[in-house]
Amino acid sequence: METILKKLRFILDTMLQVNREKACGILEFELKELENIFSLLILGGFVGMPSPPVPLAMELLPYMERELTIMLARSDMAQDPLASLMGILEVD
Amino acid sequence: MSAAFALSLARSGKKVLIASLDPAHNLGDVLGTKLHDKPGKVEANLDALEIDLNSWVKRYLDESREELARTYSYNLTLNLNSFFDIMKYSPGTEEYAMLWAIEHIRCNLAGDYDIVVYDTPPTALSLRFLAMPAISNLWIAELTKLRERILSKRNTITRINPTSVVASSCVDKADDKIYGKLGSIKRRLSDLSSLFCKESYIAVVLNPDVLSVSEAIRIKEELDRIDIPLSGLCLNKRGVSTTAWTLDRSLAASPLFEFDFIPKGLHKRDDLASIDTKDLVADFLATKS
Amino acid sequence: MTTIIALFALALYFIFYFTYGKTIRDKVLKSGSAAVAPSQRLSDGVDYVPTNKYVLFGHHFASIAGAGPITGPAMAVAWGWLPGLLWIWFGNVFLGAIHDYLALAASVRYDGRSMQFVAQDLIGKKAGKTFAWFILFLCILVVAAFGDIVAGQFAGDGRVFFAFVFFCVAAVIAGFAMYKSKLGLGWGSLIGLVLIIVAFIAGNQLPVKWSKDVYFLIIFVYIVLASTLPVNLLLQPRDYLSSFFLYFGLIVGGIAALISFKSLDAIPIFTSFSAKLIGPAGALQPSPFWPTVPLIIACGALSGFHALVAAGTSSKQLAKESDAMFVGYGAMLVEGFLSTLVIISIAAFGGLALGDKLMATPALGRFVQSFAKMVSTVLPIFPMDFMTLFAAVWVSTFALTTLDTTNRLGRYIIQEMALPMKDKNPGAYGLFNNKWVASLIIAFVGLYLARSGGYTTLWPAFSGANQLLASIVMLTVAIWVKKKLNPKYTMAVLIPAILLWVTVTCALIWYEIVIIPVFFRDMSKMPNVITGSTVGAINLFMLILNFIMIVSFIKNYKDTKATA
Tens digits of per-residue pLDDT, B141-191? Predict the structure, then answer.
């Protein structure tokens, strides 16, 4: 009996989690893009883009660890974005 | 010009600091003393210093590097040294170093004096650093808005899905170091902006020739663009040549102070006293009050 | 009887999952001793995030389930109820689910890269370009097919339109509640569900009688506008709320089918090998079950889209490779079950719902009425009125979401493909690069085709493109098994892949020589001629790309030395 209840509890938890992720999936995708843009705007000066003057970027750099990770991940994705877009855009 | 002005003020009883921002560093020669990065006494009420821009750039970069070392995980600091060497050549660093030097003087030294006189570098660099706060402010404002948007989205997602990867990053404005840093940069720049626009007396020195007048007009246009008022025009070396020239109408709005050409030149400090800065000083003190 | 069929389907899927699926996992992929999955190895807290396999399953299933698994089977009953079911069952376990599973696994082994990348690596550079073209055509054709289906749905049942509109309003409000206010997910969902009920009631009270053309226009405006809105306004909350439709539909449908015991007598078990299914409205042509079945039943049995979705986000989130069986193979089987329910409901309750008019009703209407009849008969707590509206809004929502997202995707692809024009023809490039222009192209071409072609022509065209994509993926995966996994099992994947490729190619050639000419029978009817030319050209272009691809494939297949 107890194991059945435990299993039910597990199923319920999983469904709720799926639910939560469904509610935010597209938002999360959009957020990562915004963070990527933010990083590019600030750090673009390092790669020759007309971005805020490098000194400003320098001041913000120490706090941008996550932003740098996202920027790297996104620059990878930008080469081949079709897959991720199809995944998030519910085309089927 | 600025040396004469500062000397005159000092000898009239005010405590004056004159700071040379000019990389050419002529000030020391004119004042007859060797100048350093810290205020040195010239005479009774007059202290002088000259900014070593290179050391300010280095200091600025070193501060950033230390902060990076503190914040970043070990791996990332490995290649920082060589990276920073390249950094010091990047455009914009000189202007910023200049701004922070001025800020340092204003915050840490100005309290000891009644007046601080700045001998500015050549036009190009001066206009750039004067414009910096205004230009940067727009960037900072937009970046701040974008950051707020990001934080609010993170907040929304974390509220709904606490196990999302987003949860490990900052969601609150108060905790976000980047937001805080953007805010502090904004404050520093506004203070400097206010210093340039509202709390300063800016005088442009020009020579009685057509080229100099054109340059002065361009300076005025630039200053108008960044809302910095031109408080006075100093016509230097009047009579040095007989070539005809005229003062353009656009410059007519600012009071003009004329100073004769001194044929024998300026060799020592007391020679500066031969430049009659009475009117300029009077105008300055009038606007100051 | 429905119960037996439903149980048989469940049993079949279970058996194949635990035998065939396991064989693939243990013998072909050897997932037990595979390298650590990229989600752990390359974990970055951004895209590579190891996720619990149950949560990932739900996510993956929700991504692949749409209006597709419903539309195709609803059309296929014209052959009788058994042929379609056979394809849904055996096509799924031998082709579709394997296709999904191996695509997911290949992507995992390629560090989460897309199918395009994998195909390019194994078949050649041409494969990459082919993908882009296929997806562009798919976007246009899906707009055409779904556009006609939804417009037909709106025109057929006047209550659906406003129910849908109010549902969108409900989604926007629920979105505010969940994302902007402090109410959170629970309350926001509750508000959303309550408003959905309100939307249904309101739709019920406000039936409208507009012509199909009016709906085409509305859909056109909707596509162009909706795809420019920020995602958190409408797309995200509506997407979230519509997942409740899916769960509800699947569960009540499943329960109703399992306990109904009704015999499948509304439709004969088998009508004819070449029933009239495909063609312009009013001029349906005899369509031989082989090779044209993939042109009708795509999702539900096999779908190229799924490979793209699997290799998009799912592969980067698999905690370990062995989970791919549950997520890839398993999700597709569940979709197969959904399609089974569609056929069961029409075959058993279609007669009660629509009587003689069953086959004359458009495919979607057929499903809506039969499904509603099944649920309301077996579970009287759900009245017929409510269930028909529910089913109609369910499918329309998924279809309209697809229209919105394919527009966004298609826009991007057009801009990407216009890139080479940048230097040679900057004027044209500037034009295509404009997002409004790109958007209008897709919406306009799609809906024009919809209006003059009808879904009986366009759904098969869309399906054909989809299945061609799937066959390229299957061929890619076959080379992958040969080159990188275990050449001993190559035939197990290659033979189905070749059979699929032959079938789909024959189907599309059949389509080109039998269906397209029908449009030119009366040359005075301009819209028909234009439609026929456009669809014919797209089809031909895809066939040519297909042949270029197979040549590339054969060359690469022969060249490679197997590396175990």
Answer: 888 999 999 999 898 888 888 888 887 777 788 888 889 888 988 898 888
Question: Which residues of B fall within a CB distance of 8 Å from A47?
Answer: none
Distance, CA of C217 to CA of C232 (rounded, Å): 25
Its pTM stands at: 0.81
Give chain B's contact residues with A (Cβ, < 8 Å). Answer: 60-61, 64, 67-68, 70-73, 87, 90-93, 95-96, 132, 136, 139-140, 143, 146-147, 149-150, 153-154, 156-157, 160-161, 163-164, 166, 168-169, 177-178, 181-182, 185
User: Which residues in chain A are closer than 8 Å to C409, comparing Cβ atoms?
Assistant: 85-86, 89, 91
Decide: helix, strand or coil at residue B258: strand
Cα separations in angstroms, C482 against B127, C101, C127, C485: 68, 16, 18, 6
For C496-514, how does the pLDDT look when each residue is reduced to its tens digit (9 = 90+)?
999 999 999 999 999 999 9
Subunits close to C (at least 3 CB pairs below 8 A):
A, B
Tell me, what's the ipTM? 0.83
CB-closest option in A55, A58, A62 to B71: A62
**Domain check: are B131 and B25 in the same one?**
no
Q: B50 and B19 in contact (C-beta within 8 Å)?
A: yes
Q: Which of C45, C46, C184 lies at the smallest CB-CB distance from B160?
A: C184
The fraction of chain B above a pLDDT of 90, given in percent, is 2
Three-state secondary-structure class, residue B242: coil
What is the C-alpha separation between C100 and C331, in angstroms, rounded?
9
Query: Which residues, including other chains, have CB under 8 Å from residue B161's CB and lie 6 or more apart?
Result: A20, A21, A23, A24, B167, C185
CATH of domain C2-158+209-559: 1.20.1740.10
Looking at the structure, do residues B159 and B94 belong to the same domain, yes or no? no
- DSSP character string of B101-146: HHHHIIIIIGGG-SEEEEE---HHHHHHHHHHHHHHHHHHHHHHHH
The number of residues making up chain C comes to 564
The pLDDT-based confidence of B87 (bands split at 50, 70, 90) is low
pLDDT of residue C562: 46
With b for 16 or more beta-carbon neighbours within 10 A and e for fewer, the C478-512 pattern comes to: bbbbbbbbeeebbebbbebbbebbebbbebbebbb
Q: What are the chain C neighbours of A7 within 8 Å (beta carbons)? A: none
* Final residue belonging to a domain, choices B196, B216, B231: B196
- B110 and B224 assigned to the same domain: no
